[in-house]
Every structure is written in C-alpha cells, then in structure tokens.
Amino acid sequence: MTWALCLNCGEIKFGAICRCPKCNVLSTGDMDLDIAFSDHKMVQNSVSGHLFDTYQSTTRRFLVSS
What we know:
Layout: E1 3-5, E2 12-14, H1 31-36, H2 49-65
Antiparallel strand pairs: 1-2
C-alpha cells in the first residue's frame, strides 16, 4: 500500500497526490513536497503528530513572513 501524510490535516492517506478521505483536500500541488511526506521517502512509523505540527508551524511562519 502506498501512503502519505495529508499536509492539510495530518491524516495518513492513500497516495501522495490523492484526495484525503478525512478533509477532502488534494495534494499541495508541489509534487516533490508531497512525495517527501510519503512512503517513498520515509517509513510510516516515523510520521507522527509532531512531524505534522512542525510542518504546519513552519509553513505558517513562512506565509506570515512572505
């Protein structure tokens, strides 16, 4: 099974570019970023709430400073 982290809500979903069943959001549009948070680049056990929280806070800081 191919899995990825939904970068909108943090749910584990099927496929990096597929719609998330929890929040219904597609990928970010950045294929490299989506794949970086999938089983192509990491093991599923390493994906945790902490990783998602870090991604979200980093993204918010970047958007605010832009």
